[in-house]
Amino acid sequence: MVHEGEPAHYLRLKVSIGTLLFSWNDQEKITGISWQEWHRPGANRGFLLTSRKIPIAVEMLIEDFWNFFEYGKPIPRVPWESIDETTMSDFQRKVFEACSIIPHGETRPYGWIAERIWKPNAHRAVGQALRRNPFCVLVPCHRVISAQGGMGGFLGKANGDEPELQLKRKLLDIEFNYKNPVFGFLSSNYDPIQVRTRLKSNG
Predict the structure, then answer these.
(1) FRET pair for 141, CA 20 to 30 Å: which of 7, 73, 157, 167?
(2) How far is the C-alpha of 178 from the C-alpha of 158, rounded, in Å?
(3) Residue 96 belongs to a domain with what CATH number?
(4) How far is CA 143 from the centre of its chain?
(5) pLDDT tens readout for residues 105-134
(6) Owning domain of residue 154
(7) How many whole angstroms separate alpha carbon 15 and alpha carbon 115?
(8) Whole-prediction pTM value?
(9) Annotated catalytic residue 141
């Protein structure tokens, strides 16, 4: 889901396959993570642009997202304590929580989530909730596929030839191809101190 306009507090992060927008409110609760563009590689990867000082929770997520997109590493957890839930219904929250426990590099059908939230016949409602997922990648709706093994929908689209579904395939490829190197510091040019420095310089 791409934001209409720009929120008061935001940060843009360019990664290997596009640009993400992180937003938060005055209480420093994360209100959204959305794609601004995804159909072309992000130039100047790691470039950050923000409107205000960055909350610690967002700063930590930036490191997690960078590791995910550059190296395929799992994002450790959803920081629910730092998420703004005021716009979620109880049903949506349950769907998002169930989705978030699908393991990195694996997929599940919509019915699996419906069963986890004790609504076994609600697979269509689950699909609608995930279609409105405001926390792309963090709540990994890209790991949810159709019961027949097809890609299912993503970002409100269901046609496999559309850019949204191609993005879903890329996200799954990042996870499926992940290999944990024996000596990660030898195979990685990621520098968390450098990222933190860029974050603070934009604060």
Answers:
(1) 7
(2) 26
(3) 1.10.10.10
(4) 11
(5) 899 999 999 999 999 888 889 989 999 999
(6) 86-176
(7) 34
(8) 0.80
(9) yes
